[in-house]
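Q: Here's a chain of 148 amino acids. Please give me its 3D structure as C-alpha coordinates.
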Amino acid sequence: MKSLRFAAMAAVALACAAPAAVSAQQVPVVPGDYVTVSMISVDDGHDLDYINHLAGMWRKGQDFAVKQGWITSYEILSNEFRRPGEPDYYLITRFTKFGDPAEEQKREDAYNAYMATTNAQMEAASADRAKYRHQMGSQLLRSWKWRN
Protein backbone atom coordinates (compact mmCIF):
# COMPACT_ATOMS: atom_id res chain seq x y z
CA MET A 1 0.00 0.00 0.00
CA LYS A 2 2.90 2.31 0.86
CA SER A 3 4.45 1.81 -2.59
CA LEU A 4 1.09 2.57 -4.27
CA ARG A 5 0.79 5.81 -2.30
CA PHE A 6 4.40 6.73 -3.18
CA ALA A 7 3.75 6.00 -6.88
CA ALA A 8 0.59 8.17 -6.80
CA MET A 9 2.46 11.06 -5.15
CA ALA A 10 5.28 10.75 -7.67
CA ALA A 11 2.77 10.82 -10.55
CA VAL A 12 1.12 13.95 -9.13
CA ALA A 13 4.51 15.62 -8.68
CA LEU A 14 5.50 14.81 -12.26
CA ALA A 15 2.16 16.04 -13.61
CA CYS A 16 2.56 19.33 -11.77
CA ALA A 17 6.14 19.78 -12.98
CA ALA A 18 5.39 18.96 -16.64
CA PRO A 19 3.61 22.24 -17.55
CA ALA A 20 6.48 24.26 -16.09
CA ALA A 21 9.01 22.26 -18.12
CA VAL A 22 6.98 22.68 -21.30
CA SER A 23 6.43 26.40 -20.78
CA ALA A 24 10.15 26.90 -20.10
CA GLN A 25 10.95 25.58 -23.59
CA GLN A 26 11.11 28.16 -26.37
CA VAL A 27 8.82 27.72 -29.31
CA PRO A 28 11.09 27.23 -32.34
CA VAL A 29 9.30 29.86 -34.45
CA VAL A 30 8.46 33.55 -34.14
CA PRO A 31 5.74 35.49 -35.95
CA GLY A 32 6.73 37.08 -39.25
CA ASP A 33 4.88 39.26 -41.73
CA TYR A 34 1.19 39.22 -42.37
CA VAL A 35 0.44 38.07 -45.91
CA THR A 36 -2.66 38.96 -47.89
CA VAL A 37 -3.54 36.82 -50.88
CA SER A 38 -6.14 38.04 -53.36
CA MET A 39 -7.43 35.43 -55.80
CA ILE A 40 -8.27 36.93 -59.19
CA SER A 41 -10.08 35.43 -62.18
CA VAL A 42 -9.86 37.15 -65.57
CA ASP A 43 -12.24 36.52 -68.45
CA ASP A 44 -10.79 35.01 -71.63
CA GLY A 45 -9.23 37.59 -73.89
CA HIS A 46 -8.60 40.12 -71.09
CA ASP A 47 -5.30 38.94 -69.60
CA LEU A 48 -3.37 41.73 -71.33
CA ASP A 49 -5.90 44.32 -70.10
CA TYR A 50 -5.45 43.12 -66.56
CA ILE A 51 -1.67 42.78 -66.73
CA ASN A 52 -1.48 46.34 -68.08
CA HIS A 53 -3.51 47.51 -65.07
CA LEU A 54 -1.18 45.62 -62.71
CA ALA A 55 1.91 47.02 -64.45
CA GLY A 56 0.51 50.54 -64.27
CA MET A 57 -1.71 51.76 -61.48
CA TRP A 58 -1.40 48.73 -59.18
CA ARG A 59 2.40 48.61 -59.34
CA LYS A 60 2.70 52.37 -58.84
CA GLY A 61 0.57 52.13 -55.68
CA GLN A 62 2.40 49.09 -54.35
CA ASP A 63 5.82 50.65 -54.95
CA PHE A 64 4.64 53.75 -53.09
CA ALA A 65 3.42 51.61 -50.18
CA VAL A 66 6.82 49.87 -49.99
CA LYS A 67 8.66 53.23 -49.97
CA GLN A 68 6.36 54.45 -47.18
CA GLY A 69 7.06 51.31 -45.14
CA TRP A 70 3.38 50.30 -45.11
CA ILE A 71 4.17 46.99 -46.82
CA THR A 72 7.40 45.02 -46.97
CA SER A 73 6.92 43.43 -50.40
CA TYR A 74 4.43 42.29 -53.02
CA GLU A 75 4.28 39.89 -55.94
CA ILE A 76 2.05 38.39 -58.58
CA LEU A 77 1.72 34.65 -59.04
CA SER A 78 0.01 33.14 -62.05
CA ASN A 79 -1.81 29.83 -61.85
CA GLU A 80 -0.12 27.97 -64.70
CA PHE A 81 -2.22 24.81 -64.52
CA ARG A 82 -5.55 26.33 -63.52
CA ARG A 83 -8.42 23.94 -62.96
CA PRO A 84 -12.07 24.96 -63.28
CA GLY A 85 -13.08 27.25 -60.44
CA GLU A 86 -9.54 28.32 -59.58
CA PRO A 87 -8.13 31.85 -59.95
CA ASP A 88 -5.83 32.94 -62.74
CA TYR A 89 -3.71 35.19 -60.53
CA TYR A 90 -2.76 35.53 -56.89
CA LEU A 91 -1.79 39.02 -55.70
CA ILE A 92 0.46 38.73 -52.65
CA THR A 93 1.21 41.59 -50.25
CA ARG A 94 3.32 41.35 -47.09
CA PHE A 95 3.30 43.77 -44.15
CA THR A 96 4.46 43.78 -40.53
CA LYS A 97 1.57 45.45 -38.73
CA PHE A 98 -1.86 46.96 -39.11
CA GLY A 99 -2.34 50.69 -38.78
CA ASP A 100 -4.80 52.15 -36.31
CA PRO A 101 -7.78 54.13 -37.72
CA ALA A 102 -5.93 57.46 -37.65
CA GLU A 103 -2.91 55.91 -39.40
CA GLU A 104 -5.14 54.27 -42.01
CA GLN A 105 -6.73 57.65 -42.81
CA LYS A 106 -3.27 59.25 -43.18
CA ARG A 107 -2.24 56.42 -45.51
CA GLU A 108 -5.38 56.78 -47.62
CA ASP A 109 -4.88 60.55 -47.94
CA ALA A 110 -1.19 60.14 -48.85
CA TYR A 111 -2.00 57.37 -51.35
CA ASN A 112 -4.74 59.40 -53.06
CA ALA A 113 -2.44 62.43 -53.29
CA TYR A 114 0.41 60.35 -54.72
CA MET A 115 -1.84 58.58 -57.22
CA ALA A 116 -3.52 61.92 -58.10
CA THR A 117 -6.95 60.33 -57.76
CA THR A 118 -10.06 60.43 -55.63
CA ASN A 119 -12.00 57.59 -54.06
CA ALA A 120 -14.76 58.17 -56.64
CA GLN A 121 -12.28 57.84 -59.51
CA MET A 122 -10.80 54.68 -58.02
CA GLU A 123 -14.30 53.20 -57.62
CA ALA A 124 -15.11 54.00 -61.27
CA ALA A 125 -11.87 52.39 -62.45
CA SER A 126 -12.59 49.33 -60.35
CA ALA A 127 -16.07 49.09 -61.87
CA ASP A 128 -14.54 49.16 -65.37
CA ARG A 129 -12.18 46.30 -64.45
CA ALA A 130 -15.06 44.36 -62.92
CA LYS A 131 -16.34 43.79 -66.45
CA TYR A 132 -13.55 41.22 -66.97
CA ARG A 133 -11.78 40.84 -63.60
CA HIS A 134 -13.38 38.98 -60.71
CA GLN A 135 -12.06 38.74 -57.18
CA MET A 136 -12.75 35.18 -56.10
CA GLY A 137 -11.72 35.79 -52.52
CA SER A 138 -8.89 36.81 -50.28
CA GLN A 139 -7.02 35.46 -47.29
CA LEU A 140 -5.02 36.94 -44.47
CA LEU A 141 -2.15 34.66 -43.50
CA ARG A 142 0.77 34.98 -41.09
CA SER A 143 4.26 33.81 -41.90
CA TRP A 144 6.45 32.18 -39.28
CA LYS A 145 10.23 32.34 -39.10
CA TRP A 146 12.63 30.00 -37.38
CA ARG A 147 13.92 31.28 -34.08
CA ASN A 148 17.70 31.88 -34.25
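Q: Can you summarize the key feature?
A: The chain is about 50% helix and 30% strand.
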